[in-house]
Amino acid sequence: MKISKTARFAPKLIQSRRLPAWFILGWVSFVLGQSPVRAEEKPTYMAIFLDGKKVGHSIRTRQTAGDRVITTEEMNFTVYRAAQITRLYTKETHLESTDGKPLGFEMIQDTGGGLQKRSGVIRPNGQMEVTIEIGGTKQTILLNYPPGALMNEGLQLLQKAKGLAEGVEFEAVVFRPDMLETTGGVLSMTVKGGPKKEIDLLGKKVQAYETSTLLRIPLPFQEQVQTIRTVNYCDENLEPLKILVPFGDKMLELIACEKELALRPEDIFDFLSLMTIACPAALPPAGTASAITYEISILSPDKIHIPSDDNQIVEPLDDKRLLLTVRPVVPPADVPFPYTGTDPTILEALKPTEYLQSNDPKILEMARAAVGSTTDAAKAARQIEAFVKGYIKDQNFSIGYASAREVAESRQGDCSEHAVLTAALCRAVGIPARLVSGLVYVENLAGQKNVFGGHAWAEAYIGGVWTGLDATRAPQGYGPGHIALARGNGNPTDFINLTSVFGSFKIEKVTVLPPLPTTDKKTPDQTPAAPK
Fold first, then answer.
1. How far is CA 102 from the centre of its chain?
2. Residue 202: how many CB atoms within 10 A of its CB?
3. In this predicted model, what pLDDT tens digit does every residue of 108-143 receive, in sequence order?
4. What is the H or E stretch that residue 362 is in?
5. What is the widest separation between alpha-carbon atoms in the chain?
6. Residue 271 in 3-state DSSP?
7. 317: left (phi > 0), else alpha (psi -120 to 50), else beta?
8. In angstroms, rounded to a whole number, what is the distance separating the alpha carbons of residues 461 and 479?
């Protein structure tokens, strides 16, 4: 499916020193959205637990009106992050015919940074009119609905036709409005029937049919296909009873319950603990090392993906150990901008997106003010990094995620807000930019000493290399204490693989390389880019 140049989606990234609020909500709604809804008229309530703590709830409904079926999933999360609270909400509605033909959809999300809405009407000829509202802007585009992709009622009918017997197995393709750019709006799944067994529903023992689901999600930026395994339990009417969703090294449980229990206040669970990794030794201050090597042990039985790029190299030591070397590059001097090359990947990193509104008048004005009369791309990028550092005045951690345009208006946010504004300003002046999520070293994080916490930053493409820009840490910015785990250019699903990485490895040893002799073209914590 071809997507209009104006219909691009940008990733929502990890908060500096905080678990990404948007990511928790998006991850669960993404997986739960693949489970058939069978609540006829009367809502089904589910409480959401993580590590035994209630962190949210969902309300699921199915209504019929003539020859049409409307299924709705509402989800609420309360995220505590080092005494800061973010309340998250999403609502997804599917409109289908009674025989499972897709007719339309709507997705509303509120991650604390503003209300986002995507809606679509599917015409009889297979075209889909999609309207996107975010950051105070609205656009309508015409796409082709992916042939054969099922929505909720269609998936439920397929499941009913195949039955619930143990050993039954079938394939399906399902539609996801939040995956238009990454996969054309679809993902594939394998559903396999398991045994009928007794399960515990908050102290109540019931008999349930087990099905396991394997979701396959292409991640172009990671050049891999992410697989997600979930376990679902339902009754003979396909009424959902319990859903198990992996989240790092823990398990989210969605359990059917009475309305009163589902809507009771959430427990206090500090999500910060989920996205930290211990460092075996204290690292030196930023700017005092040219590179750092990390010996990593893999704890997961499955393989994990840590990317190699211009700034870090990953080498296998054996089946369960990796050697990661982070050595930031310095872009060459005297590279003009805007970029005039023809590489399609780099050109993609120049386009405005849903969250990187680089063609917005205010963003363009800010970008010109940041670079001034500079004609050197590397200097311009550093000036943008410094500009963003000074521009965002309020480090308000109650915001889950905001677009560059919203940050430009509010002047508040955490690392993801710094990252989206940095990337948007770079694109606005013709410097290709993308967003990166991963880890950054901190000496003290909510009482934890010498740890790596979830973080987001930007990269700019200058003179043949991607150079890191971290406005939250300017003027030192990006350094060897940063570990990139994923990159993206348009959709939150670019970062789904993070859930399989966090909690799946341990840093056993670090080796710090001293700074190189400085020149007028280098800084102590960086090494020159290799000739291209």
1. 26
2. 13
3. 988 766 678 889 999 999 999 999 887 777 889 899
4. helix 361-371
5. 76
6. helix
7. alpha
8. 16
Q: How far apart are CA 279 and CA 318, in angstroms?
A: 21
Task: Please give the helix or strand (H or E) that residue 315 lies within, else none.
Answer: strand 312-318
CA distance to 233, 240, 269, per residue, from 243 (Å): 6, 8, 20
Q: Which CA distances in Å does 293 have to 111, 278, 321, 480?
A: 36, 15, 13, 9
Distance CA 447, CA 450 (A): 10
Q: Using only the alpha carbons of the chain, give its radius of gyration.
A: 23
User: 416 vs 14, 70, 446, 472, CA distance in Å?
Assistant: 6, 35, 19, 9
Taking residues 254-274, report their average pLDDT: 85
pLDDT for the residue 490: 46
Q: Looking at this protein, which amino acid is placed at residue 371?
A: V
Tokens 């739960």, residue?
32
Which residues sit opposite 108 in a β-bridge? Answer: 91, 117
The one-character DSSP state at 426 is H
pLDDT above 90 as % of the chain: 55
Cβ contact 241:256 at 8 Å: yes
Q: Which amino acid belongs to residue 461?
A: Y
450 vs 282: CA distance, rounded Å: 6
Structure tokens at 307: 């990317």
Residue 301, class by beta-carbon neighbours within 10 Å (0-12 exposed, 13-18 middle, 19+ buried)?
A: exposed
| CA separation for the pair 10, 271 (Å, rounded) | 24
Query: Residues 20-52: pLDDT tens digits?
Result: 444 454 555 555 555 555 556 689 899 999 888
- Tell me the pairing of strands 68-81 and 291-298: unpaired
Which are the contacts of 204, defined by CB distance < 8 A and separation ≥ 6? none
